[in-house]
Design a protein that fits this description.
4-stranded mixed β-sheet; about 5% strand; alpha+beta; about 55% helix; elongated; about 180 residues
Length: about 180
């Protein structure tokens, strides 16, 4: 990547549109240089001469700048959101950050996600975190507090409450019953 191309991405330079497209490896999304999404890390950027080349490499078009000239389907966008949740579940992931990663507005993301799945993205995030916690309870000897941290829960008390609501038992009870 040249210095000019990187500068075009950083400054959302519309004059660079059509000269190249850039994919962000951490999100799997590709954009035009003029896209007003958050500037990605330099090491996560991959350049493509055409939108077709970016799609052939497995990147999805951005919902914001529509680099392929076509609207992204809701189902495709929800799949991207699900991938982002599965990748970033251990981090703090409020709706605003998720929307930023998915190149959309928080309220629109929430609306589309609920229409497609019947639940909110944050409900899905909690489910993914609980599934990961289940796995760690069964495959490690880590404490509930450490598991809560590794799975992205704000506190071990909140983790225990969520776990008990979902599975009808505390994390400790779950571990003992599954291993016993």
């Amino acid at each position: 990547m040249t210095t000019e191309q990187w500068r075009a991405i950083q400054t959302n330079d519309a004059t660079a549109d059509g000269q190249f497209f850039y994919g962000v490896t951490s999100t799997g999304i590709f954009c035009r240089p003029s896209c007003h999404s958050r500037v990605p890390r330099h090491e996560h950027v991959q350049l493509f001469p055409t939108a077709t080349a970016a799609m052939a490499a497995g990147f999805r078009p951005c919902k914001r700048c529509r680099p392929a000239g076509l609207a992204v389907t809701s189902a495709s966008w929800v799949a991207t959101i699900d991938d982002l949740i599965k990748t970033h579940y251990a981090e703090p992931l409020p709706l605003a950050k998720l929307a930023q990663l998915a190149h959309g507005a928080p309220s629109y993301l929430q609306h589309v996600y609920r229409a497609e799945t019947g639940q909110t993205p944050l409900t899905t995030l909690k489910q993914v975190r609980l599934q990961q916690a289940q796995l760690l309870l069964l495959t490690t000897t880590l404490s509930s507090k450490v598991i809560a941290q590794k799975c992205g829960f704000q506190s071990s008390a909140y983790f225990s409450t969520c776990f008990k609501q979902q599975f009808g038992q505390t994390p400790r009870q779950y571990r003992l019953r599954q291993k016993g």
